[in-house]
């Protein structure tokens, strides 16, 4: 990391794969319902609807879903498959399209506890440790 960043800076890995820096821990607001431990994270994200909603709110915080291909804002949601269909280019897309998770067959209920663990570990975490995760 850059030498000019203070030790109090906090690093966050966004779903897009970009690393963002938050100046201090005081700026981060964690609601009471969000997980603080690994067990809480596993329980919290084990519900597929909650995990889907969590990522949806991260990806489109203003609630306006846009097509990742043509940036059109008129889309329809297919709730049985959890995908959207763009009315502009007529392509279907999921919440994973355009993210580092795009080609993964794993669901958000598996990915989000892993991302939580990586983001909250003081040191780094190896892939073997991640594979042993419950």
Helix/strand layout:
Blueprint: E1 10-13, E2 19-22, H1 38-45, H2 48-59, E3 75-78, E4 83-86, E5 92-93, H3 108-120, H4 127-131
Antiparallel strand pairs: 1-2, 3-4, 4-5
Order of helices and strands: EEHHEEEHH
Arithmetic mean pLDDT? 79
Give the total of domains.
Answer: 1
The radius of gyration is 17 Å
The biggest beta sheet, please? 3 strands, antiparallel
Low-confidence stretches: 1-13, 15-32
Instruction: Find the structural class using helix and strand composition.
Output: alpha+beta
For the largest sheet, list the strands in their spatial order.
Answer: 3-4-5
* Total of DSSP H or I helical runs spanning 4+ residues: 4
Number of strands: 5
> Percent range for helical residues?
25-40%
Strand content: 5-15%
Describe the global form.
elongated
State the end-to-end distance. 30 Å
């Amino acid at each position: 990391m850059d030498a000019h960043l203070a030790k109090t800076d906090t690093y966050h890995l966004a779903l897009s794969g970009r690393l963002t820096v938050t100046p201090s821990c005081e700026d981060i607001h964690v609601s009471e319902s969000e997980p603080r431990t690994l067990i809480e994270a596993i329980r919290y994200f084990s519900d597929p609807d909650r995990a889907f909603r969590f990522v949806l709110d991260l990806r489109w915080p203003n609630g306006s879903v846009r097509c990742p291909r043509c940036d059109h804002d008129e889309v329809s949601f297919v709730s049985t498959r959890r995908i959207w269909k763009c009315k502009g280019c007529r392509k279907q897309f999921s919440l994973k399209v355009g993210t580092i998770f795009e080609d993964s067959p794993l669901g958000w209920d598996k990915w989000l506890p892993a991302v939580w663990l990586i983001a909250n570990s003081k040191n780094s975490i190896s892939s073997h440790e991640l594979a042993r995760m419950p």
